[in-house]
Design brief:
Layout: H1 3-18, H2 21-28, H3 32-46, E1 51-53, E2 58-60, H4 62-88, E3 94-100, H5 102-119, E4 123-129, E5 143-147, E6 155-159, E7 164-170, H6 172-177, E8 192-195, E9 206-210, E10 213-217, E11 223-225, H7 228-236, E12 241-245, H8 246-255, E13 259-261, E14 268-269, E15 272-277, H9 284-293
Parallel strand pairs: 3-4, 3-5, 8-11, 8-12
Antiparallel strand pairs: 1-2, 5-15, 6-15, 7-12, 7-13, 7-14, 9-10
Helix pairs in contact: 1-2, 1-3, 2-3
Length: about 300
Amino acid sequence: MDRDLWSGLAVFETIVEAGSFARAATRLGLSASALSHAMRSLETKLGVRLLDRTTRSLAPTPAGEELLARLRPAIASVAGALADLDNARERPAGRIRVSAHRVAAIYAILPRLADFARAYPDIAVELVVDDGFVDIVADRFDCGVRHAQTLQADMISVRISAPVPLVFVAAPAYLADHPAPIGPDDIVAHRCLCYRYTSSGVVHRWEFERDGRTVERSVRGDFITNDIDVMRNAAVAGLGLTCLPLPHAALQLADGTLVEVLAGWAPTLPPNHLYYPSRRQPTAAFQAFVTAMRV
């Protein structure tokens, strides 16, 4: 097959899957103008228009839909052949793209990557940190890392961490002006630093657990952010009281810049799970990565 024709077909399939030239360009590591030129060349070579494009939308034409229906099985077959080739190697190689939320990336994945790199020097890892929900199929990730209860039913999941304890903290300077809370009802008298979920836009509701009992309390949210590092730093600066994953506050608790409050009331987050589509054909490199992350 003509090399330029095959390249153009791959570009066409990626543009339709991505839903825009900009997203397709990001996936392929090319400029949007280069993809636009490739599509014009493909349509000229085939003598048929494949995409309907406006300033606000993009969709395949009927001819484009028919071509895609025949093209996708061929692309899947090529991907399978490449996976088989990778599996046949004595030493796995390739690139693994991972989407993970910040706490999992820092405390569940990074501590294992040095050993993984020594064992598999030909495998590169791209770790994209995003606290929002990510469509790992549409965005071409090999896998994602989130809490199990948020995953879709058609995903295979592997536990990669223990449950993650939370901790309520504040800076000594803040507590010097505001008596430390003893129980959940006391937080109404405090400035509370809250987290807003990136995807849903919902502000995290504070939960308290003790003796098997869980209670929720609404807080004023005197400071709200969608970044857990900013929330921790705001607490260190004395802005108010907040709730953090214990690993994310451990250094500050150790050096005294943060102090635990409401001891015995903090809940625990579920374990982190690595997940990927059940229909995915794992390569040897990906299987090695999953094995290295599993607990």
